[in-house]
Amino acid sequence: MPENKKIKLDKNSIMFTFWKYFSIFAVAILLLLWLLQIVFLNRFYESMKINEVTKIGDYLRGQFEKDNFETQILNYSQRKGMNIEVIDEEGHLIYPLTLIDVIINPKVIDQETFNEFFKGVKDGKKPSRVFITRFENLENPSIVYAGYLGKTGASTYYITIKTALEPLDSTTDILKKMLMIVSVLAFLLGLLLSYYFSKRLSKPLVEMSRTAKQLGSGDYSVHFKHVNYTEIDDLSKTLNYATDELTKTIELRKDLVANVSHDLKTPLTVIKSYGEMIRDISGDNKSLRDKHINTIIDEADRLTDFVNDLLDLSKIESSLEEVKLEEVDLSEITKEVMERFQKSLPKESYEFILKKEGRTHIIADKKRLEQAIYNLINNAVNYSGKEKTIRLEVIGKNGMVEFSCIDKGIGIDKSDINNIWDRFYTARANHSRPTVGTGLGLYIVKNIFEMHKFEYGVESELNKGSRFYFRAKAV
Ligand code: ADP
User: Fold this and answer.
1) I want to staple 404 with a disulfide (CB 3.0 to 4.6 A). Which of 87, 311, 462, 469 is the partner?
2) 464 CA to middle of ligand 1, Å?
3) 99 and 107 in contact (C-beta within 8 Å)?
4) Does residue 207 contact residue 225 with C-beta atoms inside 8 Å?
């Protein structure tokens, strides 16, 4: 199928979402800039100016009667372009005076204006006030600081600072134009950057999805690459873990199928060939026929055992059945299982000894525990050789209960002892065909013990016997 090369806009893609948020962010910043620069610029400028004038005025008031008071006034008026004057309570200019001023002693403000300027200004509570006013000869409004300086002799002195507020219209116009350009540029840049970032960010994800598709199509050799972003790298690690587990499961399944088909085929071949032998050779020979028929029955039993083990195994592995934990008496369970063997085995063939000590109650799933004990006793019976005594011990001591299943049979070779718990492992696997067992019994036991978090193990010596044990907390 030809691939559709057309780029479609996927609104749920990381790229689009990223671009969307990036654009929203850019628009928000621009809006804020517009608001601050254009809408609030005038107010901002005004309050800044007022602040400045107030600071200077307050400072100068503090300098009154100090030596360099006049120099400071001169300094500020030159540096800040402000009109700073000291007047007396009648509005006569005191400082700065030109030569002519000294002669004519001018009144810089009339009494009415004076009263308006210094409304409420007194020493102490309210020594100054700042306001905006329009002077007749000036086009723009001015900020005026009117402050009380102090008394010297009979006169009281005041200070006025006047500064014009510059018109901001042209500034705002320039700003508007600049902001327009900035907006367009920011938008384009946002578009480009978000495209670049989102591409970078989504690249590992896209690659991962490609690898996952490969995995889905049955290629288990895939590896999810290391990524620089922690979250995506975690995902990558998890997927690698899942792939490993999947590979293991698939290998186990292959293993299982191979083992199962082999273990099913062998008894079936035996049954078939013995059937043929009865038909062709031993049909009329009673003793030979009985021998052959017994072999067929034995093989059928083996098949049944094997199928049962497989069923138990699949139940345990799929954890289909819930684990039902309850308080049980381990010695009771052991006794019950032992009696089942005593009933089914030929009389007098095996001797069972059960030893119980202390309190033997534990928490366990009764059915599963029975099965584990059954498998252990079954092995003890199967591998007991000539010495057919099987000791079962359930001993409660120090808050623990220990179960042991002891036989004096063939024992286990050191080279096998670590493997006997494995699935399908039979100690004679490399030699002849085992006469008993499927190699699943101890694997099931192990699963049951681990499910209960019991400590378990085996002590064994070749030709001397074995002791299989597990320990559980007493209740
Ligand atoms: P099987 O069905 O072959 O008995 P198990 O998983 O129960 O499988 O046991 C694995 C192997 O461990 C057995 O084949 C046997 O060689 C060895 N084994 C288990 N129990 C005993 C025992 N009590 N004495 C000697 N060998 C044992």
Assistant:
1) 469
2) 15
3) no
4) yes
CA distances from 86 to 44, 89, 114 (A): 29, 10, 12
Fill in the amino acid letter for 130: V
Residue 440 CB partners (closer than 8 Å, separation 6+): 306, 309, 310, 312, 313, 423, 424
> Which residues are CB-neighbours of 152 under 8 A, at least 6 positions away?
65
Tokens describing residue 231: 């979250």
Chain centroid to CA 284? 76
More confident residue, 282 or 446: 446
Q: Which of 139, 95, 87 is nearest to 113 (CA)?
A: 87
Residues 6+ apart with CB under 8 A from 435: none
Which ligand 1 atom sits closest to the C-alpha of 439?
A: 8
Q: Which token pair is 340? A: 């089942």
> Is the predicted pLDDT of residue 244 greater than 70, yes or no?
yes
Which residue would you say has higher pLDDT here, 333 or 89? 333
Q: Whose structure tokens read 């039993």?
A: 301
425 lines ligand 1 (CB under 6 A): yes
Counting from 1 in the atom list of ligand 1, the atom nearest the Cα of 440 is: 6
CA distance 182 to 173: 14
Phi-psi map region of 166: left, alpha, beta (phi>0 left; psi -120 to 50 alpha): beta
| Atom of ligand 1 minimally distant from the CA of 405 | 23
pLDDT at 1: 43
CB distance 465 to ligand 1 below 6 Å? no
**pLDDT tens by residue, 193-222:** 888 888 888 888 889 999 999 998 988 889
Q: How many CB atoms lie within 10 A of CB 97?
A: 15
Mean pLDDT of the chain: 87
- Count of C-beta atoms within a 10 Å radius of residue 374: 19
Closest by alpha carbon to 276, among 260, 295, 262? 295
Give me 23's structure tokens. Answer: 């654009």
What is the DSSP code string of 220-264?
Answer: TT--PPP-SSHHHHHHHHHHHHHHHHHHHHHHHHHHHHHHHHHHH
What confidence category does residue 8 fall into, taking pLDDT thresholds of 50, 70 and 90?
Answer: low
Residue 144: closest CA among 71, 76, 88, 82: 82
DSSP 281: I
Q: Specify the 3-state DSSP secondary structure of 388.
A: coil
CA distance 42 to 168: 7
The span from the CA of 28 to the CA of 34, in Å, is 10
Q: For residues 279 and 287, what is the distance between their CA atoms, to the nearest angstrom?
A: 14
What is the whole-number distance in angstroms between the Cα of residue 279 and the centre of ligand 1? 36
CA distance 451 to 100: 111
